[in-house]
Amino acid sequence: MFTKARNIETAFGHIRIFTLTIISGSILFCCYALYKSYQIVSAAHQKVYILAGGKVLEASASERSENIPVEARDHIASFHKLFFTLDPDDKVIEENLSKALYLADQSAKKQYDNLKESGYFAAVISGNISQQIRIDSVQFSTADYPYPFRCVAVQRIIRPSSIVSRTLVTTGFVRNVSRSDNNPHGFLIEKWTTLENKDISIERR
User: Fold this and answer.
1) Where do runs of H (alpha helix) occur along 53-105?
2) Which CATH superfamily is domain 65-204 in?
3) Are 152 and 136 in contact (CB under 8 A)?
4) Are 69 and 79 in contact (CB under 8 A)?
5) pTM for this structure?
């Protein structure tokens, strides 16, 4: 009888150990599953999906400070391309320059007004002239704020009789502003100045 009691007690002990093992394992598994789920959700929140041209593209979210040099250089390049890309069409000129002026302060508006008053845009239209720009480099520093920059580019002025290439060197500063549809990078160019703009070659057509 005592032997049976000991056997029953031993059996209950084994069942108790087995049960505790199962419960502990279940708790550990649940904790692991919750941890992995949290990791997956966090990773998913860092991804942004963009629909472009009928294709879904994945972009990763990151801190703005990590992307300031890249975004600022693109902002500066975009501004120069919009400001200096002209065709003999008043609607194209107006559209490009209106977009460009959202990206800079009054210093750009002042240069635009000077060109307009001098009849430059009218000459582009009447002379069937196209103007293109190639950005060679954008030097940008985050050591100071507002951020100073220097843009080096080449202009191509395409006339019916010739193609003129001109150097273009500009400087200015960039400061942070709110992002918008008109200013997706959230920067504003300030104190924009042209340091150099002279002919380097003329190609007859």
Assistant:
1) 64-84, 90-101
2) VirB8 protein (3.10.450.230)
3) yes
4) no
5) 0.69
